[in-house]
Design a protein that fits this description.
single chain, Aminopeptidase, 4-stranded antiparallel beta sheet, 12 strands, 40% helix, disordered N terminus, disordered C terminus, binds 2-acetamido-2-deoxy-beta-D-glucopyranose, binds zinc ion
Amino acid sequence: MRSPVRTLATLPAVALVLAATFPTISGAGIQPSQSQYEGADARAAAEPTRHTFPLLKWLRDTAVEVVFGTPSAGTKGGSRPDPALESRYRNDVVVRFNVTNSEEEAALASAAGQMFLDVWAFTPQYVDVRLGKDDVSALLTLLPKALQPSVLIPDVAAAVWATYPSTTATGKSRFESTVVDAAKLKTSLDGVGNIFFEDYQTLTVITSWMRLLEAMFPSIVNMTTIGKSYEGRDVYALRVGGRKSEGEASGPRKTILITGGLHGREWISTSTANYLLWSVITSYDKEPMITKLLDHFDMVFIPVLNPDGYEYTWQSDRLWRKSRQQTKMRFCRGLDLDHAFSYGWDARKLQTDPCSESYGGDEPFQAVEASNLAKWAKNETDHGARFVAFLDLHSYAQEVLYPYSYTCSVDPPNRENLEELAVGLAKAIRISSGELYTVMSACEGAVARTYSASESFPRIEAGGGSAIDWFYHELHARYSYQIKLRDTGSYGFLLPSDHIVPTGEEMLNALKYLGDFLLGNNGIERGVFHKDLKRRRR
Ligand SMILES: *[C@@H]1O[C@H](CO)[C@@H](O)[C@H](O)[C@H]1NC(C)=O
Ligand SMILES: *[C@@H]1O[C@H](CO)[C@@H](O)[C@H](O)[C@H]1NC(C)=O
Ligand SMILES: *[C@@H]1O[C@H](CO)[C@@H](O)[C@H](O)[C@H]1NC(C)=O
Ligand SMILES: [Zn+2]
C-alpha cells in the first residue's frame, strides 16, 4: 500500500513517483486507445516545455491516482467521518423566519446572541436559523408573536450525512471506482477534471491536485503558501498568469484575487474556486477571452482560506464555520475570519463572546489566517502587485455583495461602478444558468434599506471587520465582492455535489464578465480612487 503522494514540487520528482506507480495502473487494465491521446497532444502543443510522449502517457494514466491516492490506500478510511458523528445533529432543524421590520430583526438578533443560535443566512427576504427542535419554543418566547417560523430542513443529521462523498456498492468511493474505469478517462486532464468535480474533496486531495496543476502547467502556474493556519497547515495559493506585454511586464502586476473556504462549512465556495482555477488554466491559449484575461492579469486563487475549519468539517463537524483557534474560553474554539480584519472593526458592535458563531476575536487580526492573508497581500503590493478585483466566495443565499459591510452610512467612493459590475455579474450568472443572484450592499441586514437611515437597529450579524472591506479600503481593490453562492435554502450549506459543476459554470461566466469589464476599462478606473487616496494622505 502506498500513501498518497504529497510532494510534487518539481516535475522530475513527479516523474519518479509516477514511474513507480505506473505498473500498478497498467496491471489494473487501463489500455487507452490512440484517440485518447489527442487531447493531451493538443495541450502539449500549448506547453512548449513538455511534449515528450511518455511523460503525457504516465500523466494521463496516473494523474488521478496522484490526486486521489491509490485505490487500495483509499478504501480503508474513506472520506466520511465516523458514523457516530451522524448523531450530532439528530435533534436539529433549520427554520426560516420572514422578517418584515426592524423591530423583528432586532428581537431575532438579540435572541440569537442570547441563545448562541447558528444563523445560516439572513437576507431581506428571510432569516434561517439552525437549532434543536426542543429549543424552538424557547426561541419563540423571545420574539414578537407575528414572527412565526417555517421548517426548512426537518432532519439536519440526514442532510449532513448526505453531503459526504457517496460510496458505491463495492464500498469504494465514486472516484476510486472511476480510476479503473478507463473508458471515462478520455484524457488525463478531462479525466481528472470530471472526477475531481463529481464530489466535494478533502484538503489532502485538493492540495495534491493543486500540486499536479502546478507540475502540469509550469509556464503559467506557481503554487505558493501565504502562511500557516493556527494548527500549522499551509494555506496554499495558486498564481496563474500568461504572457505579459512589454508595458504590462514593467508596470504593476494587476491581480485578481479569488478566495474560497473562509468559512469551513461552505464547501461550495471551495469547489467553485477550484472550478474557476481549473477552467482558466485549461482554457489558456484555447479560449480567447481567458487567454486575454491571463495575459493582462495575474489571478491568485486561494481555495481553502481556513484549512483548519475545512478539515474539521470533514473529520468531526460538517457544520463548523469558524477557524479552530483557541479563544479565551476553553470550550469555545474558533474565530469568524470574516469579522477578523481591521477595517470597520468595532468592539461595541461585534460579538465579543467566543461561543458565538460570529465572534471575530477581541481585537483585529487576532485570527491567524486573516492576519496572514493581510500580511501576504500587503507584501504583494509592496512588491509590485496591485489588486484590482477581489472575489470572496461564500454560501449560501445567492447574493453579490459590495462594500461597505461595516456600515450603510458611508458610501464607497466608486459605488456606481461597484453596483454596475455587480449587476453585470448577476446578469452573467442568470444568462448562464437562470439562477437569480441578488445585488446589494454588504451592509444590509434582514430588512433592506432601513440601515442607512439609522444606525440604531442591530443587524442579525454585525458587518465589521470583513475581508472585502479591508481589501477595498486598505489595498484599494476597487472591485471587491463577497459572493454568496447556491442555493437559497433548500439545502443551505449542505448543497448536494451535483451542484458543483453548475455553480462553477455560472461563476465562470461571471468571471468572464468581470474580465471583460476590467479589460474594457483597461483595468484602470481613473479618478475617484486617486482623489480619495490624495485626500487621505494629505
Ligand atoms: C415566508 O414567505 C414565503 C414566501 O414569501 C412563504 O412561502 C412562507 O410560507 C412564509 N413563511 C412564514 C412562516 O410566514
Ligand atoms: C512563476 O515563477 C517564475 C519564476 O519565479 C516566474 O518567472 C513566473 O512569471 C511565475 N509565474 C506566475 C504566473 O506568476
Ligand atoms: C514578499 O514578496 C516577495 C515577492 O513576491 C517575496 O519574494 C518575499 O518572500 C515576500 N516576503 C514575505 C515576508 O512573504
Ligand atoms: Zn461565509
